[in-house]
């Protein structure tokens, strides 16, 4: 499955505000061709800094994933996450 993966590691600090983010982010990601592969599921931290919430989403391309992030629908969702979570987010291109 070529494309790109959106990988997020999150510590939620304000559940109510972050809930609003999640409510809006899902449709924004889907509209950009993305689909969740893992979202808040069980995990085992083997190295590095642990975050209690981890998300993996697939997009058809690296460009589509970045465009989703920068797009108005996702930015509107992201406004609710700012100050409501500590996050790391990266996009990794899949191997063909």
From TrEMBL:
InterPro entries given in the database record: Dimeric_a/b-barrel (IPR011008), DUF1330 (IPR010753)
A Pfam family this chain is assigned to: DUF1330
Residue ranges of domain DUF1330 in the record: 4-95
PANTHER family, sorted: BLR0684 PROTEIN, PTHR41521
Name of the molecule in the record: DUF1330 domain-containing protein
């Amino acid at each position: 499955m070529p494309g790109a993966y959106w990988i997020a590691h999150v510590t939620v600090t304000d559940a109510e505000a972050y809930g609003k983010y999640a409510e809006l982010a899902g449709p924004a990601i889907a509209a950009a061709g993305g689909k969740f592969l893992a979202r808040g599921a069980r995990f085992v931290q083997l190295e590095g800094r642990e975050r209690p919430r981890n998300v993996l989403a697939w997009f058809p391309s690296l460009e589509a994933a970045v465009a989703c992030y920068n797009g108005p629908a996702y930015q509107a969702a992201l406004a609710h996450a700012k100050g409501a979570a500590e996050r790391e987010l990266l996009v990794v291109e899949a191997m063909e």
